[in-house]
Design brief:
The structure holds 2 protein chains of 2 kinds.
Chain A: H1 2-6, H2 38-62, H3 68-88, H4 93-126, H5 135-138, H6 156-187, H7 190-202, H8 207-223, H9 228-252, H10 256-264, H11 269-298, H12 301-306, H13 325-334, H14 338-366, H15 375-399, H16 421-429
Helix pairs in contact in A: 2-3, 3-4, 4-14, 6-7, 6-9, 6-11, 7-9, 8-9, 9-11, 10-11, 11-14, 13-14, 15-16
Chain B: H1 37-75, H2 78-81, E1 85-86, E2 91-92, H3 95-126, H4 129-144, H5 147-172, H6 199-223, H7 227-235, H8 240-251, H9 253-269, H10 272-277, H11 296-303, H12 309-340
Antiparallel strand pairs in B: 1-2
The chains are: A mainly alpha, B mainly alpha.
């Protein structure tokens, strides 16, 4: 069938491709080419058990050592030693090195990811005391003192403050950041190089210095009071270089031939940007913005300097202190009261969940490179081009009787239009 | 051929050098594109955006330098060598603070670089398929965890658990001056309270925070090592470690150095986690395991509120020095990374 459609002019009955039949041929079990030998597995397990045993012996019985961290370190070191010895019983020096390094690399990964999971899980678990109380999410700390139980007070004011501040920051960062990135990529020139250098330099700006700048430039000189808007400005200064840099990379990845195709069709620069570059880079741009948001939400020190601590809900970003989630965490845990610390962990858990949710959304949108489509998008594109083919064919059919010159149709299977060559090209590519 | 085609295929003046036109009075068609309205609007908006960005960034730098200058004029060179910080009496300097900042950052590097190097090699050389994707996602995720969460973990968990280790190190390696823990009279301290809130603990926490940055830069550099040379190493009978040492590490050297320095830049500027952990002091403390350290950003967070106009200017000067250091570190890093990277442009 395949050959038939490809060469419609030739007789379809003569040439056929014969696929050899696989019937009657036994397919054996799939052989594993990269499996671990039984010996190796025993080496690993044996060395692990021996390492733990030595660690426990040293810490439990023989010497006055104590502490979980020390036990882990001693056990790990003796595990590596035992493993090297066990491997060395059958292998040469090169192989011993290879195995030991593999184990070391794997343990670096385990330590790192273990630490990450532990930091996050520790916060979530300690936050369990505060999280089940519904009032934690719908009240503020106005009427709750440090000694009050967890059933009083909440972090609504911090949640709202974070949302307001990040919205203002995003309202500035998204247009400014993406336009700057477009400027760097689509217009270019010497000034663009300078802008890129400055934006790169700004990623080095410590967050506290950004906060100090806003504090002394806006608060001390102009407004004379702390406000959510000042905090949003500080967050903007922090987020802007991140968004510019990430969007710049994404836009650079848009294939040049797409742009050239648009220019070749006579599109202006702006139409190329709007209809080709931006739609192609959309998932990547969304990821850049969301990752920038995740960083901006977690910023503590600029907010500490510019917006200050408060216990009441303040919805006006232009006057009075407005607290945000990370700053609320910081403020809660400064208190020695266990209830306040529990609230601090609860707030941190909310913050982490927020960042995790943002990150998941970013993954969902931007897991693909520019121009790569999801299944749904691909289906829609195919449907659209099929619609175009139908539309063009119908138009051609209508025009058929009007056409004066009856040309011999070379391929009756293809709905071609003799008097309009351009659409037929388009449909053959669809 | 040229006579029948008066505008020429390219229409550039260069093509008309050896060519005499037939009809001189015909108007020359300009082949420069006339920008459409939308284009000129787009161009001016984009240039404005770029200029605004530069404006904001330059404003930060200029404002900092301008405000810092009044403090720097008073203190002069002693700003870099004075340990005390009391702008009210005109005696202030960042010697001890800068020392603390750098100690914490160096300890952070000692923790972070081996972990980042190992993880980057694990991801690029050992992990396969789905596992690799998951690990990359986890590294990215770790970079997004807010620093205050790391600070919480450092204060409430790590502090208590790392004190026995610190005390063990100071007992058995006390002959190395850094690891000694003594009081003012030189008496060796062993009680747990001497080991809390130290640069060591802050360094560990900051180290964990910068690992993801370093890992992703290094991983990217490693994954660009050419496959042909990897296979060549294997074909010559090398083990995987031999291949890594002779192919991947030399190719990724720029990435290792650049990633380390990018992480260093972040570690120097980290505020809130350090502020939560250390107890601030204003003397140079060589004993990294002992209570008390300081950092520029923690100083700013501590003193900004109580400062007078002049005190604020002094803090600005400290912030400016920190910014210049991180700027230098970052530029060095990105130039090293950029030089090591080949084929970064993906013009398809």
């Amino acid at each position: 069938m395949l050959i038939d459609t490809l060469t419609p002019g030739t007789a379809p009955t003569k040439t056929t491709t014969v696929i050899p039949s696989s019937e009657g041929i036994e397919i054996g079990p799939r052989r594993r080419v990269r499996s671990v030998r039984l010996d190796d597995r025993f080496d690993l397990i044996g060395a692990g058990v021996a390492g733990i045993a030595v660690g426990t012996l040293l810490f439990g019985w023989f010497t006055p050592l104590s502490g979980g961290v020390g036990w882990t370190i001693v056990s790990f070191l003796s595990f590596i030693t035992f493993y090297a010895v066990l491997v060395g019983m059958k292998a040469d020096r090169q192989e011993i090195k290879d195995r030991v390094v593999s184990v070391l690399l794997a343990s670096a990964g385990v330590i790192l990811f273990g630490a990450l999971v532990f930091v996050v899980a520790y916060t979530l678990v300690r936050g369990q005391d505060a999280l089940p109380h519904l009032n934690f999410f719908i009240e503020n700390m106005e009427l709750a003192g440090p000694l009050d139980p967890l059933s009083a007070g909440g972090i609504l004011h911090a949640v709202l403050g974070t949302l307001i501040q990040i919205s203002i920051a995003l309202a500035i960062t998204i247009p400014l950041g993406i336009l700057t990135a477009l400027f760097l990529n689509e217009i270019g020139g010497r000034f663009a190089k300078f802008v890129r250098t400055i934006a790169d330099a700004m990623t080095a700006l410590p967050s506290i210095v950004a906060g100090l700048f806003v504090y002394s430039a806006i608060i001390v000189l102009i407004t004379h009071q702390r406000s959510g808007f000042a905090a949003a400005m500080a967050i903007t200064v922090m987020m802007l270089p991140i968004v510019i840099r990430a969007s710049d990379i994404v836009l650079r990845l848009v294939a040049g031939n797409l742009r050239e195709a648009a220019y070749a069709l006579g599109a202006t620069r702006w139409r190329t940007v709007w209809h080709v570059v931006l739609p192609t880079a959309r998932p990547g741009l969304a990821t850049a913005v969301i990752l920038g948001t995740a960083r901006g939400i977690g910023e503590t020190s600029p907010v500490l300097l510019t917006s200050g601590v408060t216990a009441v809900t303040n919805l006006n970003p232009f006057s009075g202190p407005m607290i945000s989630l990370p700053l609320q965490v910081f403020d809660f845990v400064k208190s020695p009261e266990p209830n306040m610390i529990a609230r601090g962990f609860g707030t941190a858990a909310v913050l982490i969940l927020l960042v995790l949710a943002l990150f998941a959304v970013a993954r969902l949108i931007g897991g693909r490179g520019p121009g790569e489509l999801s299944h749904g998008q691909q289906r829609r594109v195919l449907e659209a081009s099929a619609r175009d083919v139908r539309r063009i064919t119908i138009a051609a059919d209508r025009r058929q009787p009007v056409a004066a010159v009856p040309e011999p149709d070379p391929a009756p299977g293809l709905p071609s239009t003799p008097e309009r060559p351009a659409p037929s090209k388009e449909e053959s590519s669809s | 051929m040229t006579t029948t085609n008066p505008t020429g295929p390219l229409g550039q003046p260069a093509t008309s050098v050896g060519w005499t036109p037939d009809f001189d009075d015909a108007p020359r068609r300009s082949l420069l594109p006339r920008p459409s309205l939308s284009d000129s609007v787009f161009k001016s908006v984009a240039v404005t955006a770029g200029a605004t960005t530069v404006g904001i960034m330059l404003a930060v730098g200029l404002f900092l330098s301008f405000r810092a200058s009044s403090a720097l004029q008073v203190s002069g060179f002693s700003f870099l060598v004075e340990q005390q910080w009391s702008p009210e009496t005109q005696v202030f300097g960042i010697a001890s603070i800068l020392f603390g900042t750098i100690t914490i950052a160096l300890i952070a590097m000692c923790v972070a670089v081996p972990l980042a190097l190992g993880t980057a090699l694990l991801i690029s050389e050992i992990a396969q398929g789905q596992l690799r994707k998951t690990l990359i996602t986890l590294v990215d995720l770790m970079a997004a965890v807010p620093s205050v969460v790391f600070g919480l973990w450092g204060v409430f968990f790590l502090q208590a658990n790392v004190i026995p280790v610190a005390s063990w190190i100071s007992t058995y390696f006390g002959w190395i001056p850094f690891f000694q823990v003594t009081d003012a009279s030189g008496q060796v301290l062993t009680e747990a309270s001497a080991f809390t809130s130290s640069a060591f603990i802050a360094g560990i926490v900051v180290g964990l925070m910068v690992v993801p940055t370093q890992t992703s830069v290094m991983r990217e550099a490693f994954s660009q090592a050419p496959n042909g040379e990897r296979e060549a190493a294997f074909a010559l009978g090398s083990t995987r470690w031999g291949m890594i040492r002779s192919v991947v590490l030399p190719f990724g050297r720029g990435g290792i150095i650049g990633g380390t320095m990018l992480g260093l830049g972040r570690a120097l500027g980290e505020t809130i986690a350090v502020y939560m952990i250390i107890s601030p002091i204003f003397t140079i403390n060589w004993q990294v395991l002992k209570t008390g350290s300081n950092s520029v950003s923690a100083l700013i967070a501590l003193r900004y509120g109580e400062s007078s106009e002049f005190g604020l200017s002094a803090l600005m000067a400290a912030g400016l020095v920190l910014f210049l250091i991180t700027l230098m570190v970052n530029f060095t890093a990105s130039s090293i990374v950029a030089r090591s990277r080949s084929g970064a442009d993906s013009e398809a």
